[in-house]
Amino acid sequence: MVHYDATKYNNVAEAEQDHQGVAVLAIFIDVDNESPQLNQAMGDLSSHLSDILYPGQVTQMSPFAMQSLVPKSKEYFRYHGSLTTPPCIESLIWTVVKNPIYITQAQMDSFRTLHGNDGERLEKNYRPLQSHNDRPVYHGK
Can you say how many angstroms the Cα of residue 111 is from the centroid of all Cα atoms in its chain? Predict the structure, then answer.
């Protein structure tokens, strides 16, 4: 989840120019068909993905609280980092939640049908591990 202060910046591109202009909340997702802790909000969200396979497509769904996507345990790590896509601007504050949320394999498969701006499926949209460049990583609860 990417956030910026819309009262201070006109758009995310403008916020990226400030070294504290963009905050990212990252949550790990594990596939576990048997987990008693399946995330209901992700189930609702994944059921609408077939309507928005390509950038620019729109769908409607019932509102839900964004906090329902966050695991109950709020333990996290925080650090100053970069965008994960080119040009990899180093102006983000990352908060990475320690514990994952759980979805089914079918739900994960529905996410893997989405396409990016280049028309390719978003299947392996990650980059290699980067050096931390001696930046401190903070831990909180």
Answer: 12
